[in-house]
Amino acid sequence: MEHSGKDNSVRKILIVMSAADTWERTDGSAYPTGYWAEELAAPHQKFVEAGFTVDFAAPGGVRQPLDRHSADPAVAGADCGRYVEHAEKALREFGPLLKLGEVDIDDYAAVVLPGGHGPVVDLHQDADLGRLLTAADAAGKPIGAVCHGPAALLSAVDSEGRWLFAGREMAAFTDEEERLFGTAEGAPWLLASRLREWGAKHSGGPAYQPFTLRDGNLFTGQNPASSAPMAEAMVAALG
Question: Residue limits of the DJ-1/PfpI domain (predicted)?
Answer without folding.
Answer: 39-235
